[in-house]
Every structure is written in C-alpha cells, then in structure tokens.
C-alpha cells in the first residue's frame, strides 16, 4: 500500500520504518532539510535500538523514502499519517499548529480517496478539527474528494519502540467510517496476527484513550513515590512493599517502581494537557493535579537527600552522577529528573561530573559549556575528585558497580541511589553510606530528620535548564 507519513520524529520514523518493513511503499515528509539529508544517508538522528538497521534495510530495498516535497507524496497516497509534534503551549495545552498545517497541506493536494490517520497525541476533538481544515482547503480549490480522518494513537515506549510497533498490544482505530476501517485493517493485518488486537471506537474515545493510558501509568508512579516517602518516614522499605502489593494481580508488578520521578516526552506533557482539557470543561481533576505535584517534588528527591547529607552546605562540593537520560536505552533528556537535580546542585554551588552511555551529547547541547558540568566518557571517570555518587538512570551498566573502586575514589563515600538499584546492606558493608528512595530501613535515612527543613527549600520552577 502507498503510505505517506508527515513528521520524521520519534513516532513518525518508527512507524514509517515498521510499515515499510511489512512491504508498504512509505514516503516520509518533513520540513527539516538537514534531518532529511541525514536520513537519506541512512543516519537516524536519535538513539533507538534496532531503528537504524530497519531504516537502512528498507531504504535500500526502496520501501522507505524521505522528501520535503509534500504535494506528490499526498497525491499518490492511500493512507496519510500525521505524526508531527504537539509540544505544550505556554498554558500547558497541546499546540496543534503543526498538525493543522499538515491537514491544510493534505487538503491542498489530495486527488483521490485517502485515509488520514492521526498518530500524534492530540486533544480530544482534534480529528474533527483536522477534518475541517482539510475540507476548507478542498472547498478553496473547488474540489470534491472523499476522505476520512481516523484517530490511531501510538503506544510506543522509547528504547522498545521498534518492538512495540512491530508487535503492538493493541491497535486503536477511532473512526465510524467502514471504508476507512477496511483500509486500515488491511494495512495493519501483518501486525494483527495470532489474536485480534484491533479495537474500534469513535474518534474522541480513541483520542482520550491515549491520555488515559499515560495518566494511569503516571498515577501509578506518583502513587508509589508517595508510598516511598511514607515508607521512608515509617521505617519501612518500599522495595519490600512493592513486591508485596505487586503479587496481587489486580495491582500487578509493572510500573510500580519508586524512583527519581517520571520524565520523557509523554507523561509530563500528557498529564498536563489532560488537566487542561478537563478544566476547559469546568472540571478540576484532583488526582491528576496530585500526580503532577508529587512528581515535581520527586524530581528533587535526590537533591534533598544530598543536601541533608551535607547539612545544607553544598558550595564547592562535587557530585558524581550516573545517568542523564530520562530512562535507560535512550538519549532523550526531555523533562529528565537529572536536569532538575543538576540545576538544584548548581544553584547550591556544587559541581557535577556525569556519565551517561548515550545522552552525553544531548546534555552538552541542552546545558551548554559550563564550568560546573563535566561530562565523562567512562562511568568511573566521574568519581575523580568527587565527594559522593548519585545514580539517576537505571542503565544496565550501573547495576553491578565495583563498590571497592567507588569507595576508594570518592572523598566522602556515599551513594544516592535514585532507582533503588543496590542492596543497602552490601553498599554499607563496602564502607559506603547508602541512601535510596523510600528505604526507611536503611540506617542513614532513618536517622535523618526528614521533615525538618535545613534551609529554605525553594521549589524550583518547572522549566528545565
Ligand atoms: C510512555 C508510555 O509508556 C508509552 O506507552 C507512551 O506511548 C509514551 O509514554 P516513555 O515515555 O518512552 O513511554 O517511557 P516509559 O518507559 O513509560 O517511562 C516513563 C517514565 O516513568 C521514565 O522516566 C521512567 O523512569 C519512569 N518510571 C517508569 C518510574 O519511575 N517507575 C516505573 O515503575 C516505571
């Protein structure tokens, strides 16, 4: 099938490559010349396991092409995906300008029946706006061309996106058009094997499903982070509690890990946008507000522990940091807890020496050259001249550390384990002070006066560095 895809960002590129892999003829359209030039050379401008070979293979066999020229790509397509960004506007609502610009381009160039598919995460009601924008352009041309708009949200996880796309748990099609549904059932047939994964619903419900899924997952995380903060104060260990509650199948073991807070391009943005939508209809979503507030505080949790460890005196200290990306297997630092931690440390006069297996360049790009940030190529290099070590991203590389080496290298051996990767007793046994998240049984934390403020602890603004 001839497929055109607008947007070669994360979602667009993965979707395009996977559709090409199934034998479709896919053309990806983007407005960024540099990015297109890189893609044409077979260079994938983001780190995602398995994506580059997939892109290269399908480019080589002619199934995947990249262009800036929208007109022919629109005119010849049977299905057109919109996968452009919907960044948050200043007020927290999703900015639809890119989506609607693509819709207008589609309206200007379609010649025959086409199914327009919304892949971008868009506010409820956007499918109707896309339809209106296309119709307006058709009317301006004096053309009558049939088309349908379908909401088909993506559920890709960064780091596992190719796998998620090739073997989806569900394929949500929001449309009431039998014609459009028949086309998409054919397109998705190779992804829909063994058991039925396609769920058909109206477009508004499909749009809300995406927000509801992300908000539910974000809620699980904030709930566990709140439990961790309670466990810490009550002398319990959240890791034991997690196993205890996860064994109830109604709760489940997934996504109940306390940590340094959730980041990334989806959860923070989508929870905010959903709150906004609800408020727009005169409803204040109390749970969502709490989910955000807990997460905001949690991103500063490691900073709070480090600050308390040093009795508020961070000036001139050096903190070694393992991890910069918002989660492992990506170089993405959008809304990453590391940015909040580093910013707080810098404001307090400390220096950071950081290592991340993939996100070093991204950190340099975001933070720029600064004397209080040293990015190291090797994980143990960060320890040179550092007082303590904080771990904020659970890369596999950090899971079995050489504790003796850490103890010998640090000036004041202490590990702040933002992902509860280590056994507190083993760390203490090696002669290193251990601080985790919600691990009230660890001696260090139980002896800390957690509720007594040391200094005025300003809540940092939500904006990143
Ligand atoms: C998420 C959704 O999982 C995906 O379905 C959707 O399409 C896009 O948003 P992603 O942003 O790639 O995917 O990251 P995810 O793996 O879900 O992790 C999000 C954040 O939650 C990370 O910062 C992670 O560290 C944190 N997290 C996750 C926890 O703190 N605890 C957990 O138990 C799980």
UniProtKB/TrEMBL annotation:
InterPro entries (UniProt xref): 6-PGluconate_DH-like_C_sf (IPR008927), NAD(P)-bd_dom_sf (IPR036291), UDP-Glc/GDP-Man (IPR017476), UDP-Glc/GDP-Man_DH_C (IPR014027), UDP-Glc/GDP-Man_DH_C_sf (IPR036220), UDP-Glc/GDP-Man_DH_dimer (IPR014026), UDP-Glc/GDP-Man_DH_N (IPR001732), UDPglc_DH_bac (IPR028357)
Keyword annotations of the record: NAD, Oxidoreductase
Domain named UDP-glucose/GDP-mannose dehydrogenase C-terminal: residues: 320-424
UniProt pathway: Nucleotide-sugar biosynthesis; UDP-alpha-D-glucuronate biosynthesis; UDP-alpha-D-glucuronate from UDP-alpha-D-glucose: step 1/1
Top EC category: oxidoreductase
Pfam family, one: UDPG_MGDP_dh_C
Enzyme Commission number(s) from the entry: 1.1.1.22
Catalytic activity: UDP-alpha-D-glucose + 2 NAD(+) + H2O = UDP-alpha-D-glucuronate + 2 NADH + 3 H(+)
The organism's place on the tree of life at top rank: Bacteria
Entry's family note: Belongs to the UDP-glucose/GDP-mannose dehydrogenase family.
Protein known as: UDP-glucose 6-dehydrogenase
Organism (species): Dyella ginsengisoli
Lineage: Bacteria, Pseudomonadati, Pseudomonadota, Gammaproteobacteria, Lysobacterales
